[in-house]
Design goal:
The protein contains 7 helices and 4 strands, in the order αβαααβββααα. The longest helix is centred in the middle third of the chain and has 22 residues, at 132-153. It has 215 residues and is α+β, with helices and mostly antiparallel strands. It has a domain at 14-130: Ribosomal protein L17 (50s Ribosomal Protein L17, Chain: A), CATH 3.90.1030.10. Strand 3 (108-116) and strand 4 form a beta hairpin. The chain has helices spanning 14-31, 38-57, 60-67, 73-81, 132-153, 171-178, 183-189, and strands at 33-37, 94-101, 108-116, 121-122. The termini are far apart. Strands 1, 2, 3 and 4 form a 4-stranded antiparallel beta sheet that branches.
Length: 215
């Protein structure tokens, strides 16, 4: 039974899990943002929060405790120089943003980033996914700005290579185009078809080539 067991096994032995979390904490301090699975990120967050709290304390025992977790001395020095970024916070130094599912096993993925207290965003510019209403408002604002820009530029003048339409021609120009007595329309439409013989079957009678006898 797992009574009073708060740790997550993550499918690994104790030594493997400890080494993995140490490596992930070092990578997070180095790159300030990593992509991992949601269970691993949830297991890593309290470790990073404790490291930042120790860095804010800054005494020798705290530095030795940090060096026992991080893998390199360079990352220990970097964490000690970053402690002023979190001076106005007592906890919650990381931000977790969902990043869909991993191809293959569909494991839930996320970005785990160190936050910047002055603006509440991740150090790499990653933030939590915006709500649907916020995303729609942003698109509407962009569309309105685009429409206003097009309206401010004015109408586009037609190029000299474009031919005028019939609606753009004046009365005299239209007469010149069509000719006297609408001869231009007659030439365009062709001869009148009123005198041509009717096709078989147009008047409702059966085709002479077909049998018309109802017997």
């Amino acid at each position: 039974m797992r009574h009073r067991k708060s740790n997550v096994k993550l499918g690994r032995t104790a030594s493997h899990r400890k080494a993995m979390l140490r490596n992930m904490a070092t990578s997070l301090i180095q790159h300030e943002s990593i992509k991992t699975t949601v269970p691993k990120a949830k297991a890593l967050r309290p470790i990073v929060d404790r490291l930042v709290t120790l860095a804010k304390r800054g005494d020798l025992p705290a530095i030795r405790s940090i060096a026992a977790v991080l893998m390199t001395k360079e990352m220990v020095k970097k964490l000690l120089t970053m402690k002023d970024r979190f001076s106005d916070r007592s906890c919650g130094y990381t931000l977790m943003a969902k990043a869909g599912f991993r191809a293959g096993d569909a494991a839930p993925m996320c970005f785990l980033s160190l936050i910047r207290p002055e603006d509440g965003k991740a150090a790499t510019g990653l933030s939590a996914p915006a709500s649907r209403a916020t995303d729609r408002s942003r698109r509407v604002a962009a569309s309105r700005a685009k429409i206003a820009k097009v309206a401010g530029d004015g109408a586009v003048e037609p190029s000299s290579t474009q031919l005028p339409g019939l609606n753009d021609l004046e009365g005299q120009e239209l007469d010149d185009l069509l000719g006297p007595d609408d001869q231009g329309l007659d030439d365009l439409l062709g001869p009148d078809d009123s005198g041509s013989p009717a096709a078989p079957g147009d008047d409702g009678d059966p085709d002479p080539g077909q049998g018309g006898d109802d017997r």
